[in-house]
Design goal:
The structure is a single chain. The chain is an alpha/beta fold. It has a single domain (about 10-190, about 225-245), classed as NAD(P)-binding Rossmann-like Domain (Rossmann fold, 3-Layer(aba) Sandwich). Helix content is about 45%, strand content about 15%. The protein has helices spanning about 20-30, 40-50, 65-80, 105-135, 155-175, 200-215, 225-235; strands at about 10-15, 35-40, 55-60, 85-90, 135-140, 180-185, 245-250. Strands 3-2-1-4-5-6-7 form a 7-stranded parallel sheet, sandwiched between helices. β5, α5 and β6 (about 180-185) form a beta-alpha-beta unit. α1 (about 20-30) crosses α7, α3 packs parallel to α4 (about 105-135) and α4 (about 105-135) runs parallel beside α5. The longest helix is centred in the middle third of the chain and has 29 residues, at about 105-135. The two termini are about 30 Å apart. The mean pLDDT is about 95. The protein binds nicotinamide-adenine-dinucleotide (NAD). Nicotinamide-adenine-dinucleotide (NAD) binds near residues 14 and 93.
Length: about 260
Amino acid sequence: MNGQLLAGKTAVVTGAASGMGKAIAKLFAEQGASVVLADLNKEAAEKVAQELPEGKALPVQTDVSDDQSVAAMIQQTVSTFGSVDVLVNCAGVPQAFTPIEELSLEQWDRTLNVNTKSIFLTARHAVPHMKAGNKGSIINIASIAGIRARPGLNAYCASKGAAIMLSKALAIELAPFKIRVNVINPGPAETPMLGKFINGDEAEVEAGKKDIFISSVPLGTLIQPEDIAQAALYLASDLSKIVTGEVMNVDGGRGI
Ligand SMILES: NC(=O)c1ccc[n+]([C@@H]2O[C@H](COP(=O)([O-])OP(=O)(O)OC[C@H]3O[C@@H](n4cnc5c(N)ncnc54)[C@H](O)[C@@H]3O)[C@@H](O)[C@H]2O)c1
């Protein structure tokens, strides 16, 4: 492998202010991409942008569940860098374990809006630009929870299962335009999100990480954000030029 894998490409990464999105943005920039860091958290996105090579990063405050906000972000991407070649939908919200009868309508809607509707919204605004260039790679970060349920993660599992099937539907629809759509299912990962799946005080959260999450991973450790970034790099680059509609579990074997 010679040179940078994403030289000359423009990548939009949602949720780029933290965790996996941040690791993806950094690796993509190292590999030559211009990166748009689209996140609700403006300050954190700006901080990540400062860690990237000058001129290669554009932080844009975005609510991925809001159509107008997504439209403005894609518009800014194209007016700044000229194209959208890669789109990574990584922004997401967790759900603390909740019995179904206690789950509020607001929580259901928010989970589905941020984790699933966002894929529809980013696609509807980015795809016309990808079609114009007759190329593109869309990578949706779903979850192993989208294929393997846990008790009390009802809305979250539903949001990720829908994200996986929406990705496959887009993969078959967009294949004639050479736009590839793939999914990464992370297993339990060491990011700020992980503890938020657990209800309880700090000690209970730490115990839960060990008892619930680490113990469920056959390889015996939590997934690192960089593990997800490496998989995203493969799917974003021409190394995977014949791969579409694929669901890649990056999960230490949790999905077996
Ligand atoms: N951490 C895990 O164990 C785990 C496991 C499987 C899948 N995932 C998924 O991986 C993705 C990344 O998660 P992470 O662990 O890096 O989480 P994180 O909490 O570290 O980062 C999530 C980012 O999304 C942003 N965000 C939230 N709502 C947003 C909105 N409406 N608009 C724009 N940005 C918004 C947050 O500001 C944050 O920067 C998520 O989709 C998550 O569901 C995480």
